[in-house]
Amino acid sequence: MGWNKxxxxxxxxxxxxxxxxxxxxxxxxxxxxxxxRIINTVKNHKAGIDEILVVTFTRAAAAQxxxxxxxxxxxxxxxxxxxxxxxxxxxxxxxxxxxxxxxxDSFCNRVVKENFNKIGIDPSFSTFDxxxxxLLKADILEDALDExxxxxxxxxxxxxxxxxxxxxxxxxxxxxxxxNEIADGYADPDKWLxxxxxxxxxxxxxxxxDLVWVKKYLEDIKKxxxxxxxxxxxxxxxxxxxxxxxADKKNRESLIKxxxxxxxxxxxxCIVESSEGLSNIRExxxxxxxxxxxxxxxxxxxxxxxxxxxxxxxxxxxxxKLKIFSEDDLRAEFETIKPIVDTFLDxxxxxxxxxxxxxxxxxKYEFSDIAHFAYEILYDKENDTPGVLGKAYAQKYKxxxxxxxxxxxxxxxxxxxxxxxxxxxxxxxxxxxxGDVKQSIYRFRQxxxxxxxxxxx
Length: 457
What we know:
Distance between the termini: 30 Å
Mean pLDDT: 87
Order of helices and strands: HEHEHHEHEHHHHHHHHHHEHEEHEHEH
Low-confidence stretches: 439-457
Strand content: 5-15%
């Protein structure tokens, strides 16, 4: 098979000791390239087929991948010259039945089965199907709330506030279930639940501006601001072009006045874009004067309307739509909502504890539980580093190949990182990923396309 320039560059990257992310659209042959790179890994003696971990997102995809790899190995073994190389490739063929080509769930299941004693669970465990787990969760949550309602007047009040006129607490339960679902998508649910709690009281401006959602909010404002600055700059360049060819004094004065009008607002927008923190951005936005717009008689009607549209779009966002809260505003809001948020999180933690107790009694778990068990086996959360077994698996797997990387979750990302090889500075160096962020379909399983985009950048 002939490879195009981009595909060949991906195959040639095998000689480099670093992670590789291949971002390619559907039908571009990225899976074929992945298979070819795996075969080249074996043929070039970079790793045996039993020293490679290949992760896909469905069992069918894993089976197809394994079939393709075995077929390619057979072709390579038939076409190779030299007895020694032939023996090597035939050995790889014999080992292919043991190749770790599977879904992330299967990989986790294998890790837990092999190391069940490390986390104190029965090795004869089984897994729930979705209908079973949904019923169990509903029952456990009902029992947990019945118990908690009797103990807490505040909980009853909050649940009532979220209920349908006090008729039932289904809306309240749905929020608990959603929080639990989101927590399960993280490698360390307990840590996420702890960090989700709202700080109040003496929280500093720096701490407020360092909150993930505040940083995202400010970045969205600044991104929008950059877009407007870009549009303003185009207008300024267009007016400047006209000035270079305008000889009439009055026309030039009119164009200069019009230019300065846009220039002043452009500079004010630049201050917004360069500001840091809620209060500073708020002050910079409030400082934009937005004087009355007057058309430039030198320009045609269409030119005036087009330039006016740039300005009105910007003014509409910053002057009419955008409301920026200060750190003091948020501090006051935190004091108000903290008891509510803490109550939801307290109930979720209690519910998760009771749920796990029942699962252990039944010796039956969800796939997310198995993934968390595997992570606990492989990663030392206390020291925030791969554990002894994680490092042992890293020695086993010389290369890790991930198909459909755009559907990775925080859980899957951290889990595979715990068995990846690292250089002396701790940087992971042996992971090869392929995917297309536009094809992300596993949001319901807490897939995070942002992980893909972060790698791509």
